[in-house]
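Final report, section 2: Outcomes. Of the targets proposed, UbiA family prenyltransferase is the one most frequently requested by collaborating groups, and we therefore present its record in full.
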Amino acid sequence: MMLTLKRLWLCFRESRPAVQMIVLARFGAGVVLAGGASRPAGRIAVCALAWLCGTVSIYVFNGLTDRPEDVANGSHRPLARGALPVGFATAVTALTAGVAVAGALWAGRWPALVMAGYMAVGYAYSGPPSPLKKHCAGASGAVTLMGVATYVFGSLAAGGRPDAALIPFATAMALWMGAVGGVAKDLSDVAGDRAAGRRTWPLALGEKRTRVLVSLSACAIATGFLWSGRHFAPLLAAPAAALLCGALATCVACVKAPAAASRARRRLPYRSFMWTQYACHAALAGGCIGVLH
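The predicted structure is given below as tokens.
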């Protein structure tokens, strides 16, 4: 029993807890900005669990397919270091996928369709015959679509009409995922990606140009979000300010992450991207609480 629990925990570790937390934050933003406060808490909880299980399934599957690259990159993830058996991880991938689909079907036709699309893109990102992750545009596009799907699923779980703030917020955050995070994450994994034959942004453009691309994308998205917040949804003023600060921090991180630096330093732009997401969602939550009071 203890061994099973330990392996389940390792599966969760493989699915990147930091990613699962921000996925739930995106889902929560979709709920709140679609009037979720008026819906039964049980329905929202079931939908949240279903989406979490779907995301865990996708990320553990990604870990299974990424093992050779992760070993080459010196990753400490459970599968890469041999702490998590492949067979157990495969079983958890299937089980969590089943729970995700069942929960979405229970929620209704549209949630089920969004879940199906989300899972399809998630598996296409990593799985055969031609994984989207092998090509820079495919990887960024998949990440963006999965971000949009999370906000949409949250709004469907709430069953309400989306607030005026939902579309610009979800659009900015999804673009932030695809054009910043989806590019920055590869800066620390060049060796493994090259060995696996991937065509990631650093391998296609070179690492220096990729850092410039990340910086320009971050600033462009933050500027556009700031403008849309001022003109369409005052509630987004704080999240927009957080995104602008995060964009500047990401630019600094790109400067401090040259190709010759350690893997930890080359990962700074991605960490800045992640912390910025947390800050934006926290700012949105604070604004919503302020409105309620």
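The mean pLDDT is 90.
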